[in-house]
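Dear support,

I submitted the protein below through the web form. The confirmation email said the job was done, but the results page showed an empty box. After a refresh the structure appeared. I'm attaching both so you can tell me whether what I see now is the final result or a partial one.
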Amino acid sequence: MTKSNVVEELAERSDLTKRAAGDALNALLDIITEALQNGDKVTLTGFGTFLTRERAARMGRNPQTGEPLHIPAQTTPAFRAGSALKEAVP
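What the results page shows now:
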């Protein structure tokens, strides 16, 4: 399912225009993104939690040459599914 499919379904289920549904979805995604950028987590009860995780620096290998290379530490976004979502998916 693509973003445009989600917008169409959201518009149908909420009696909104596609443009309003698209704006609402974009606003939600912006809110989640900004919260993660600030180091906060976003919990949608019954659905799940968006959060960030720290990855430590490590050594890796270039797959073409086998040469070792340094992979720097980074912060990555993560999602942890809620119990209702886990139960809904067989």
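Response: this is the final, complete result; the empty box was a page-load delay. The chain has a mean pLDDT of 96.
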